Amino acid sequence: MELMGSDLTSMELMGGRSGQRGKRPPGMREASVATPAGTQAPDRAAAGPQAADRAAAGPPAPDQAPAGTSAADRAPTGTQAVDRAARLVTEVVHAPDSVTFTELAAATGLAKSTTSRLLVALERGGLIRRDDDGRFRPGDVFVRYAWRGGAEAGLIEVARPFLGRLGDQTGETVNLGVARDGLVEQVAQVDSRYLIGGTNWVGRPVPLHCAALGKVLLAYGAAPLPPGRLEARTSRTLTSRAALEEDLRQVRRCGYAVTDEELEPGLVAVAAPVYRDGAVVVGALSVSAPASRLTPPRIPAVAAQCVAQALALSEVLGHRPLPEPENAPENEHDPAPEPRTART
Hints:
By secondary structure, this protein is α+β, with helices and mostly antiparallel strands. The protein has three domains: about 1-30, no CATH class; about 75-140, Winged helix-like DNA-binding domain superfamily/Winged helix DNA-binding domain (Arc Repressor Mutant, subunit A, Orthogonal Bundle); about 150-315, 2-Layer Sandwich (Beta-Lactamase), CATH 3.30.450.40. Helix content is about 35%, strand content about 15%. The chain is built from ten helices and eight strands. It has helices at about 5-15, 50-55, 80-95, 100-110, 110-125, 140-145, 155-170, 210-220, 240-255, 300-315, and strands at about 130, 135-140, 175-180, 185-190, 205, 255-260, 265-275, 280-290. A six-stranded antiparallel beta sheet has the order 5-4-3-8-7-6. A two-stranded antiparallel ribbon has the order 1-2. Strand 1 (about 130) and strand 2 (about 135-140) form a beta hairpin.
């Protein structure tokens, strides 16, 4: 342990006044103190050869550690801390899947205390993030950078925790949908905890106009409505373009879409938009269930949960919602307003 020169000078001066030198902890080096004129400097050689050797050796190097201490256990200083943090980020980014704390410490050779300290700083900076299992993945900074080019490949992996949370909250089937070839395709799903209504929708494209996911994509300009006749999938499907346009205006006003037995008899669904940076809608998140469970009184609460998770996912993708102007007139040609809802 080293003390600042001013502190040690005060100790020596106090010791001089009392007739004895101030005591210092064993192994502590003396600070260099200017000797007043006419006063004899202390004889370092009189303190023994060990003191003389220490004086000749000079101050320790910044990265010097006690004998027997490994490089991984030394406290990071200067660029050394940056190098260690970079090694951790590299391990997380290059890993084929999420990695645990123990795996990172072993792979980098860093002490667990050092690994923990650096991971906290990296997580705070958005370079890494923890999933619900406490494992580490690339952080929001990397996700936003990847989405600058409109990449869709990583959307499913990034969205998975949000689908899982929405499934836990509602107990119903949760889907992530994107526009593809004039249809909406479900690319990820969390199954319902119930047996009834447990359909696997992944990879099954459906028409845009009769699916909650599709209505969101149409309402926010993420997909165009194909030309031609609108297919009647059930007796409740909207087949009039004028009626559908009015329904899409309602989607923009509410911030979510609802389909009530329009795709299949007995199936009700709600969906909310997923944004990337620049307020561009890239997909939609939905909750679907039999009409006996997703009843009209329950729809607003489930829709609010769906919107909240969609907004949380959007933030990871770089979206920063702007406050809506109060009392703004509704105009179908104006940009679609963004939903405003409490986060969960």
